[in-house]
Amino acid sequence: MFGWLLLPAALFLALAYLQVRRWLHPQSAAIERQPEESPFSRVSFRSEDGLAIRAWHAPPTSRGGSVLLLHGHRGNRDQLLVHAEYLVEAGYGALLIDFRNHGESDGKFTSMGFHEVKDARAAYRFLQDQQEVEGIAIWGHSMGGAVASQLMSEVSAAGLIVDATFSDFPSLVRRGVIARGLPGSPITEILTALYGWLSGSDFGALRPIDQLARIDKRVLLFHGSDDPVIPLVEAERIAAANPLIRLSVFEGGAHSDLYELDPERYRNEALAYLREAFTARDAE
Prior knowledge:
This protein is an alpha/beta fold and 284 residues long. The protein is built from ten helices and eight strands. It is globular and about 60 Å long.
């Protein structure tokens, strides 16, 4: 009799473990080969904990500003290449990295941003070491937005663009659990604790909303009104935490399609923001 009572708990834990494994070991697409005339060269450097991080780099031309672009969960440096291309056309430099356990970089698991910030710090230092780079802005999508928010709170970057990130990881998990018709507690706590244990992460410290609330520079925050992964309410919470954050909502936008939805608007807003951010930095 007692054994039958344990079966539902065992089944739940097995399903929780399978879900966490999907977070730990995302399937990252292959990196597309760059054409010979591409402005991007292949570079690599070591993360703070010694992993080889692979990247594409293009130095600035008519401007001294460079942008560090950080992709999302299950993505790679290809994910933000479309943005890097128009940044380079505008004279900015760009560095696109593969996070650990993504693309061509080393690593055995993903931590949704907690350990990935070690890769971003190394990438930021790489740009600082480039003689032609006079200023750096940070750009992050989804998980990369969480990493970008953490990094921005540590360095003197000119500006920050965040596309579709979460306010804090437990809240994101809770919304997903409830959306599936399940009780938010204790499932959220179990999933978060299991993921934290297996990845060696403290998700209580992974709170972009707190880091962004303390930033004293203007931030551009993109989000889709119909994002099924990170609901718009997450972005609204972040924007409400700091009057320097400007929320740009794309009606009908999902999680990774905002640029495709309206390329001209997205590009114009991003470039206008970067001009303002780098100009303000130069005036300091």
